[in-house]
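Because discrete structure vocabularies remain unfamiliar, we first show an illustrative case, written as a sequence plus integers encoding its fold.
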Amino acid sequence: MRRLVPLLAVTGLVLGVVALVALTLRQPTVPTYSPTPPAPQDVGPRLVGPVLYTVDATAADAWRVFSFRLGSVVDGAAGDLAFRRYSIVAGPGAGIRDLGDARFDDVRELPQDGYVANEGRAEPRNPAIASWYQYGFFTHVLSPKPRVWAVRTGDGRYAKMQIVGYYCPGSRPGCLTFRYVYQGDGSTHVATPSRSSVSSTIRGGRLRPERGPLVRPPRWRVPEALAHGRIPRSTERAPRA
């Protein structure tokens, strides 16, 4: 009997380790999105959306700048948001506010104040949106939280956004995908237009993302730099997530 107790303990420990390894090696399926081709076009003082947009933020040493007014990535110009890997910051003069857990369509009016600017210059970070994801310790997957964010642009316009994905085809990390509604007239009214009045701006009519098996995302820490309206390049180290 004395020998049986240690044997059972060792057996339980081994089974526990095997279970943890199995959870770590299991490859779940996550939504994947192809980057949206840049096609800047000034939308003027209109209500635009909902739009599903994918930014190719796979490069570890370059920010990708996005403009709501132009509805596109606009590298080399000042924009409203900047993306690099999993990092999201506000553009020059812009701010972000976390509206908490909410249904995207239920957010109809945005607040006029409470928007958070970036912290730091050489290594900027926006605390309102920095923790947009949940990290899976066994799967190493970044999953968007079901939250909605408001953005006040540098020229005093408003938009609401919700992050829906992070993975590219082939399950590569860095395709940051979000839906948004942009109000170009300067008001805070961002009620999602009815489906009958929207000619499916989501992926040109394709509502479903591509899906594929997940490969484990690498662990990294992204050094960030954004100052004076310019988005410099820097090198990325590869520490732990």
About this structure: The helical segments are 4-25. Residues 30-213 form one domain. The two ends are 46 Å apart (CA to CA).
